[in-house]
Amino acid sequence: MSRTKVVPIPVMGRHNINAYLLLGRRPVIVDAGTPGSGRKIYEQVAAHGVDPADVALIVVTHGHIDHFGSAAELHRLTGAPIAGHVADLGPFRAGRAREPYLPTGPMGRLMARSKHLHLRVEPFEPDVLVTGETDLEDFGVTARIMPTPGHTAGSVSVLTGRGDLVAGDLIANSFFGLVGGRPANPPFHDDPLLNLASLRRMLALNPTRLHVGHGTPLDPDRVRRWASREHRRLARLEAAGRIRARTADAAA
After folding, report:
1. What's the rounded Cα separation, in Å, for the pair 6 and 217?
2. Which region holds residue 40: left if phi is over 0, alpha if psi is between -120 and 50, else beta?
3. How far apart are CA 93 and CA 167, in angstroms?
4. Phi, psi dihedral angles at 210 (to 5 degrees)
């Protein structure tokens, strides 16, 4: 059994938006960044001594355009198939995130006004349609795709055999990745309670590190403490009828 190494691929800023390169018997890319960043990811993969033509798979963690914006371009550049969850097929096929965005706080309310989040990007059809836990051994890495719904209906994470969790937007660093090592919600969640349940389910698997879409890697114990506080906060909001969540019909 080969060990899988997780290498961050900065897409915007040092840590604001990240893709990841998983190195095993063959390389796998997780997430495809914003529109127009396919060439940048391709070049960073090559800079790590990997022939991009050897990439076995591109895993898209969810249907927001800062994560699938360049999936079609990266597919053309590498020739690698794309894996995505069936519950986010709508955004993948339309090239648009589900709207309106549901902010988790002030940062999300501010960002929701940005025209860049409301663009239509090049759509794609996943070659590997994820419906449940999916072993990636056949793609050259000792890892599993784990459904982690809540941020979007089709959000997934990737858990390696050595315990690294590439978590997409399951959790983030504070202020969209600007405050490194400090757990926080990303700017938006379609279903905050479901997302927290997915996060706690992943924490129960005892990951060694959480590699996030926005920010630096997070310590699991620190995330557990944050999750306990977040559980209490959401319980208060739920009791007051103040939690917004996208319905199953709206997520279709």
Report:
1. 11
2. alpha
3. 23
4. -110, 120
